[in-house]
Amino acid sequence: MGRLFKDRNDGYRIKHKDPILRAIPYIMPKRYDAQVFFTDTVTLNHSDQVIKDLRKKGHRIIFLHVVLAAMLRTMVDYPKANRFVKGRKVYARKTISYSFAIKKAMELDAPETVLKLDFDPKETLIDVVNKVNDAIVKNKIAEEKNRADKAARFLNILPGFLFRFTVGLVNFLDNHRLLPKFIVKASPFHTSAFVTDLGSIGIQPIYHHIYDFGTTSFFAAFGTKRRNVVLNGDATVSKVKQMDIKITVDERICDGYYFARVIKQLMKYIENPDRLLEPPENYPKDNEIR
Description:
This protein has nine helices and ten strands. Helix 4 packs across helix 5 and helix 4 crosses helix 9. The protein is of the alpha+beta class. The strands form two sheets. Strands 2, 5, 6, 7, 8, 9 and 10 form a seven-stranded mixed beta sheet that branches. A three-stranded antiparallel beta sheet has the order 1-4-3, with no helix packed on it. It has one domain: Chloramphenicol Acetyltransferase, CATH 3.30.559.
């Protein structure tokens, strides 16, 4: 009974070993209070070659798939990165899920929808490619409405005061572990991370805020590629293709050293996606679950 009282339907309660980390959600109760911003540059020569090789084998792969698969494997390797804070308590998420927006068509007035997909820790890069492509094809149909679309359409028919009351009620229930599971499943804001591909519309990445509504602790953005000349260790120069990736995180979920390891591992996987073609060898557990 004690276990059930502490947990949520989407998360296990965390008991930090470090008392300072336990205090931080009380000092910074809002997610936007605790935003930390990272930026890094990845070299894409090898990952581009892997993508080309997979396309020759018939796989419809784009760079978004690589980022999603890299994030999935990183959260498998470092499970504390898949935590969230709600109601000033820290939880280990029970699933790994990612949300991202797509346009129904590449037109200014075309509707946009947000997809949230759950992933299995055992899934490989090819599994991610197939799952994401299937979801995109289904949701590109103009008349197709996913759960997030239906929820948004329902809210939009409400007058302003009822809209505000409904959102406030959802937040209250969420903070007190009372939000029904079907709402958590439908909400793209209750996710391990948001990912946005700004390269598809030809611009550089931005630092995106983390929504206080919901439970997401990560927002990753990547943009257009560029060619650079870099100096090698032997004093020669090489032409490389690079891309900037900007990440916003909720610093309350784990310490800075752990975050640094997470970001470094993520960048390694993005630069070497062939490491994601096989399932992970190990599945570490969050050692601070109560």
